[in-house]
Design brief:
Chain lengths: 406, 267
């Protein structure tokens, strides 16, 4: 982690109370307020603390395996016939996804705050695994909330969490997916506030989470920028990343926000197609509202009730999105597009066959959009795609959907 | 003077404490609610908190979550709850009615439209669980213009500074949540409540209702000895849940529980 705002960095969101324009903020029950205040103070204190940063950098290097490579997917680029596609290999991190960048950071914070118990919510299970991993390493008690629908479709990750010593609590309320896991984790936090640190896995939740998780994930974009310059002598022309809550996307985008020549594409999950209503694309097809502690784009009906979402990828199956993405959308700095389940599967297979890399279904949405974008660009242009996770966890889902390939 | 301020002033004169039942509108079905409100008033309720069902009730325990789910299965949302309030007012012009729920339904309607609709429904107060004072300015302004009180929560860990903040932006009464946790959890610690109420009263003149952990006549009496109002929610909804196949029985059980609380509080 280098300094918060590199020199000449003009973008300075959020404000002191966590607002990205009209979005973000702190919308929580009073019982959570003191915990949020305590967390915010700790975060502000350690953000620029050289000792904290040195410890975090060492962990990212020696435990996570950073920097992750920036890989030129030459064969795939040639096949697509347009821009040169570079993959930021977050799938090669310890535990197999970008999620660990954030859990390592928040766990160090928890340790400094003297918390002995860690809780987390998880959708695909990647954040749950990444949290259970750091909890095991630090000897902290760990409870992970996971919707029972996700427990069923991500059995492998549930088992990994249990091996790591975490208690996985299946959540049976509501739609039994990520949003309900988040509700349940908030309820736990409010009840056990004195000894418990809540590691939120995405750039959502009340302030300071959206800013804090972004700052821990921004290592993705900082490395990408340097690696791109080292390998090609210049900045990329476009960035592509999938957006559920949006942590891997903001991690890649953030260090490039002031580089106006770099276009940004956040790819939401269109599920069966945005027009069917069975999707998880609040930025493309939702409207602003308040959920889980912040104001952002949501999928809700006219009464403000949250609509059940759908995506083949559990990690994108969430009705909200980080408030900073809402702001980047409204200001036009980033573009938000969507990819259906079927298109994502095509992206999954393309990368697997062309480059020998099996991507996560979440990341496959970004790959599928790249398949549309790259051919529209010149061969000397550069796209960086965030390959946010590896696909091992999704084998079961894909086998069920497609049958076992001969 | 608002209906709420009036009610608390009246109670003070007569040396009584407010009994404030909470139920979720539309639980277990929409037609159940308005008659139940009237019966609760007859049983001794002074103020009613009417819960607006929400798909993601983050601060509620399993009992109220399930109440929300039962109501939402009948598609009872903010608009229908406002209609119920209008229905209630046709035959009861005196009992203060407070809407309690989460912010998103109000956001989707828009603050001004909501304030207008609440005024048309003759709502007396609004308690929005996930709207802390820092974010409440815009919404409160619209409500205040229309004489509607915005009621805020206080928690066991709220310090003097926060209590002062609630006192500034809030009106009607303050609702002290006597437990760390979600609704319907745990046991009441009388000494703790007593101590906290001293701090609260040192920083506000607003009446203070206490909830979370009130489940029977005995706990109601204990709280009434300390606070200005006694809020009971999960214990009532548990009665609905216990008799889903016989809602009339649930109604009788709720009335009996409220009567026993009223009696204990007044003795």
């Amino acid at each position: 982690m280098t300094e918060k705002h590199p020199q000449g960095h003009k973008y300075d969101m959020p404000d002191a109370r966590g607002h990205f324009g009209p979005y973000g903020g702190i919308f929580v029950a009073e019982t959570l307020m003191p915990a949020i205040t305590e967390l915010n103070e700790a975060y502000q204190r350690y953000l620029d603390d050289p000792e904290f940063i040195a410890e975090l950098d060492a962990d990212l290097r020696d435990y996570v395996g950073r920097p992750s490579p920036l890989y030129h997917a030459q064969r795939w680029s040639e096949h697509l016939g347009g821009a040169q596609v570079y993959l930021k290999r977050e799938d090669l991190n310890h535990t197999g996804a970008h999620k660990v960048n954030n859990t390592v950071g928040q766990a160090l914070l928890a340790k400094r705050m003297g918390k002995t118990r860690i809780i987390a919510e998880t959708g695909a299970g990647q954040h749950g695994v990444a949290t259970a991993t750091v909890a095991a390493r630090l000897g902290l008690e760990c409870v992970v909330y996971m919707g029972s629908v996700d427990v069923a479709r991500q059995a492998l990750n549930v088992y990994r969490m249990k091996l790591l010593g975490a208690t996985v609590v299946p959540v049976e309320s509501g739609s039994k997916t990520l949003k309900d896991a988040l509700n349940e984790a908030l309820r736990d936090w409010v009840t056990n506030i004195d000894n418990t640190f809540y590691i939120i896995g995405t750039v959502a939740g009340p302030h300071p989470y959206p800013a804090m998780v972004r700052d821990f994930q921004a290592v993705i974009g900082r490395e990408s920028k340097q690696q791109c310059i080292d390998q090609t002598g210049r900045l990329p022309d476009a960035l592509v990343a999938c957006v559920g809550g949006g942590s891997n996307a903001i991690g890649l985008f953030y260090p490039f926000i002031d580089d106006k020549s770099v276009k940004m594409y956040g790819v939401e999950a269109a599920g069966d197609g945005v027009e069917t209503g069975r999707h998880s694309a609040p930025l493309c097809a939702g409207r602003p509202g308040v959920l889980h502690g912040n104001r952002t784009y949501l999928m809700a009906d006219d009464d403000g009730e949250i609509i059940e979402t759908h995506s083949i990828s559990a990690g994108l199956d969430y009705p909200g999105v980080g408030p900073e993405h809402a702001w980047l959308k409204d200001t036009g700095r980033a573009n938000y597009v969507n990819i259906t389940d079927d298109e994502a599967l095509a992206g999954f297979h393309a990368l697997t066959r062309m480059e020998g890399i099996i991507p996560a279904l979440e990341s496959s949405h970004a790959l599928a959009y790249t398949m549309k974008l790259a051919p529209t660009m010149r061969k000397d242009e550069i796209i960086i795609v965030n390959l946010s996770g590896r696909g091992d966890k999704d084998m079961h889902t894909i086998m069920q959907r497609e049958g076992i390939a001969e | 003077m608002s209906r709420l301020a009036n009610k608390f002033a009246e109670l003070k004169v007569s040396g009584r404490k407010a009994l404030i039942p909470f139920i979720t509108a539309g639980d277990p079905f929409p037609e159940f609610t308005v008659p139940l409100l009237h019966e609760m008033v007859a049983a001794g309720a002074d103020v009613i908190e009417l819960g607006v069902p929400f798909s993601d009730p983050m601060a509620d325990g399993p009992v109220i979550q399930r109440a929300s789910e039962r109501a939402l299965a009948h598609r009872v949302g903010l608009r229908k709850v406002l209609k119920m309030a209008i229905e209630f007012r046709k035959t009861d012009q005196t009992t203060p009615l407070v809407l309690m729920g989460y912010l998103n339904p109000i956001e989707m309607m828009g603050y001004e439209d909501f304030a207008n609709a609440a005024q048309r429904a003759d709502i007396d107060g609004v308690l929005t669980v996930d709207l802390p004072p820092e974010e409440s300015e815009a919404c409160v302004a619209f409500l205040r213009e229309r004489g509607i009180d915005q009621i805020f929560l206080l928690a066991p860990n709220s310090d003097a500074e926060r209590i002062t903040k609630m006192d500034t932006v809030g009106s009607g009464y303050l609702y002290y949540v006597s437990l760390k946790g979600v609704t319907g959890a745990g046991h009441l610690n009388t000494d703790d409540v007593k101590e906290r109420l001293e701090l609260i009263r040192a920083n506000t003149d607003l009446p203070v209702g206490v909830g979370f952990g009130v489940k029977d006549a005995e706990t109601a009496k204990t709280v009434a000895n300390l606070a200005d109002g006694v809020v009971v929610g999960s214990a009532l909804i548990s009665k609905i849940e216990a008799s889903l196949d016989d809602p009339e029985q649930a109604k009788r059980d709720i009335v009996a529980l409220l009567k026993s609380m009223r009696e204990a509080m007044d003795s």
